[in-house]
Amino acid sequence: MPIKPPAFSTRQLLGLPPDAKAIRDYLNSICDPLPEPVVKKFPDSTYYSYKSLGLSFCFTPAKGGDLLLDSIDIYNGHTRDGFKPFVGKEYPYAFTPETQAHEIVSQLGEPDRKGGGGQTRVPCWIEYQFNNDDGQGEGNHDHGLMIQLHGVDWDDREMGWTSLVLF
Fold this sequence. Notes:
Elements: H1 21-30, E1 38-42, E2 45-50, E3 55-61, E4 67-75, H2 101-108, E5 113-115, E6 125-130, E7 143-149, E8 161-166
Antiparallel strand pairs: 1-2, 2-3, 3-4, 4-8, 5-6, 6-7, 7-8
């Protein structure tokens, strides 16, 4: 059975509003002065993107209409829409920018879901869902990790990752 390394401590930000001090403190720990985010609003979500930091926050409305942090996107490379590689020092589950697909599966086990690859020509992706049984956070909310990989060939054990979404 794989050993699950410590979770990404920043997941404790999930469920907080955009103006929360903990979110601001986290961002300032990565970059000071902090660049202004690119804010994009959609009917069901609002994104605060820090492209130069390789980081994006997705906020969704809760009961009462308040926005709460639903997911954190971390990028591992330059993207077509202007994201640069993540500049933070802590990655989820002790990954590094060089972590390969086979190392992810060794650490976390077989994913709960996966897709892409093969004839779809869509990059491979894997998803893990975890119970909040480690004493972090409040309640027994589930959380997860979705990882987009570089390649489209599931037999390529050494493909790296392009982005992570912590939710």
